[in-house]
Amino acid sequence: MTATDPALTALAQGWCALSLLHGKIETHIERALQAKHGLSVREYSLLDVLSRQHDGEGGHLQMKQVADAVVLSQSATTRLVTRLEDRGLLARYLCPTDRRGIYTDVSESGAALLAEARPTNDTALREALDAAALEPELAPLVRAVEAVRVPA
């Protein structure tokens, strides 16, 4: 079944096309990140999310917030954090105000790898979107993605 299959409702066609676009983009980025930096899309996403944390009130994310941001379960996120910590890309430490809380920060080597990988991610994303824009069923979604502007 394709996104343009007449047996699907318009809503199902849209969802199918969106899933197809996501899969194509993720696969293209995954290959590029793995080949050049030894990172998966999820690992890159986790490093990126954690690199945006800051000190101060509300600056550090709880594991549930991190899991939501990288679209994984809490247990999968914890396993991913552990893998990256074992590679020296992340570090965990106790919250200074609540000894029950554990924070996770990007290490210096993790920040360096993220900085190296960011242009690869951006280039692969652009390539995947450009390729998808050539497919009639995906072109409207590509235009929608390109039009999104997230407030700072």
Please, how many helices?
A: 6
Kindly state the mean pLDDT as a whole number? 90
Please state the structural category: mainly alpha
The largest sheet has its strands arranged as 1-2
Helical content class: 55-70%
Largest sheet: number of strands, sense, barrel closure: 2 strands, antiparallel
How far is the first residue's CA from the last residue's CA? 39 Å
Q: Which segments are poorly predicted (pLDDT under 50) over 5 or more consecutive residues?
A: none
Overall number of strands: 2
Strand content: 5-15%
In N-to-C order, the SSE pattern is HHHHEEHH
Based on CA atoms alone, the radius of gyration comes out at 18 Å
Shape: elongated
From the structure above, extract its key features.
two-stranded antiparallel sheet; 62% helix; mainly alpha; elongated; 152 residues; single chain
Summarize the structure in words:
The chain is mainly α and 152 residues long. The protein is built from 6 helices and 2 strands. It has helices at residues 10-37, 41-51, 63-70, 74-86, 108-133, 139-147; strands at 90-94, 102-106. Strands 1-2 form a two-stranded antiparallel ribbon. β1 (90-94) and β2 form a beta hairpin. The chain is elongated and about 55 Å long. It starts with 9 loop residues before the first helix and ends in a 5-residue tail after the last helix. The mean pLDDT is 90.
